[in-house]
Amino acid sequence: MPKQIKTAKLTLDDKTYDLPVYAPTVGPDVIDIGKLYGQAGVFTFDPGFTSTAACDSTITYIDGDKGELLYRGYPIEQLAEQSHHLEVCYLLLYGELPTKAQMIDFETRVTRHTMVHEQMHNFFRGFRRDAHPMATMVGVVGAMSAFYHDSTDINDPWQREVAAIRMIAKIPTIAAMAYKYSVGQPFVYPKNDLSYAGNFLRMCFSVPAEDYVVNPILEKAMDRIMMLHADHEQNASTSTVRLAGSSGANPFACIAAGIACLWGPAHGGANQACLEMLREIGTVDRIPEFIARAKDKNDPFRLMGFGHRVYKNFDPRAKVMKESADEVLNLLGIHDNETLRVAKELEKIALEDPYFVEKKLYPNVDFYSGIILEAMGFPTSMFTPIFALSRAVGWIAQWKEMISDPAGKIGRPRQLYVGATMRDYAPVETR
Ligand code: SDX
């Protein structure tokens, strides 16, 4: 439990209530209102949780004003430059960077779990070929609880550990199978002598008819995209995983819930929506028309890939992603990419527009990622599944942290009820 540093006083109807205030290691202090209802008979009201800390955590810290993102204290820019996704997985799960021996052991454990139960192949065949890969992933990841019973007892630390390894190891395989199924190509088994990112690329793009060699440029870009998406504090999908887990649901069901939440265009679905928006804009001369629509209160259109609940400065991941987009497209010899040109001009115009400046709307992680993924050969329908497979480690790390907290209890928010007061049933003849 955090340490109380001072007391906040709430005065209501001439009564004053003392509320403990806790200090973080970094970031805003928090006021503990856990006993407020019992003391004052009132709820607090914060739809969207704009001012509410739902838990204490040691995993990821975001400073929205400075545009800072730390995984266990390490800045995302340094990790993106010097680390790799599996090392970041270790860091998020266990709290420290691994020694060489620890990394070898972790990598071996993950690599040895990359195959899925052969019977799971039948699951895919139950979907229509044109099913969105996110629909398939929600279904198949949820079904993991029907195949891996020996790692669903959340009260057994060893089973929690096995479930975490299985989730990180198998979700790229499942995402690749969802893709292969959608394009009518045979599933590709993982190959244990490849890197995590290289294995995923091969499972997506290799075909039995010819040899496949992992392109190191794409492998590095894929690995960096995975690192950048790995965790992000208490975002909507992570909060979904935590809430599902607070009831004691098994980890695979909780991750499936997180995947479902991530699919929304306001959240992880924004990378697909953003690329489709850039394609719809088409050319630089049409940007003003879309900027005007984004500012029009009567038009539901928003600039996808722009804005963020927490970042009121540049999303540090967007900066790394933008550099990576330039690097990957150049290395791939794609120089006249109209979509990238439109994205850069749109960013420039928007950041000079008073509407976006006043509302502190900057490009977020989803603004450039789609350009890289498209250049790598992925259809837009695979953008959010790639976000999901990257975020799986963050979800499972946050789930483990919550489950192992002895003070944990089921999440059960209250409400401001504004519906009908009690009234008697009226027989249909009288209505
Ligand atoms: C992710 O939470 C996380 O950490 C998420 C994430 C992660 O790693 O898990 O970072 C991943 O989900 C990134 C966000 C991807 N979504 C998009 O790019 C969709 C477009 N963005 C918006 O829908 C919006 O910015 C949100 C949903 C991201 C944030 O919405 P908020 O915090 O609820 O803010 P808001 O909707 O109240 O907007 C504040 C104002 C509004 O205007 P007013 O009502 O105050 O006049 O800004 C406007 C909005 O209309 N606004 C936009 C805008 N985003 C906000 N106007 C035009 N275009 C936009 N993109």
From TrEMBL:
Catalytic residues identified in the record: 308, 366
Entries under SUPFAM superfamilies matching the protein: Citrate synthase
UniProt KW keywords: Transferase, Tricarboxylic acid cycle
A Pfam family per the record: Citrate_synt
Involved pathway(s): Carbohydrate metabolism; tricarboxylic acid cycle; isocitrate from oxaloacetate: step 1/2
Gene Ontology molecular function: citrate synthase activity
GO cellular component assignments: cytoplasm
InterPro entries recorded: Citrate_synth-like_lrg_a-sub (IPR016142), Citrate_synth-like_sm_a-sub (IPR016143), Citrate_synthase (IPR002020), Citrate_synthase_AS (IPR019810), Citrate_synthase_bac-typ (IPR024176), Citrate_synthase_sf (IPR036969), Citrate_synthase_typ-I (IPR010953)
GO biological process, one term: tricarboxylic acid cycle
Catalytically driven reaction(s): oxaloacetate + acetyl-CoA + H2O = citrate + CoA + H(+)
Highest rank taxon of the organism: Bacteria
Similarity section: Belongs to the citrate synthase family.
Protein name as catalogued: Citrate synthase
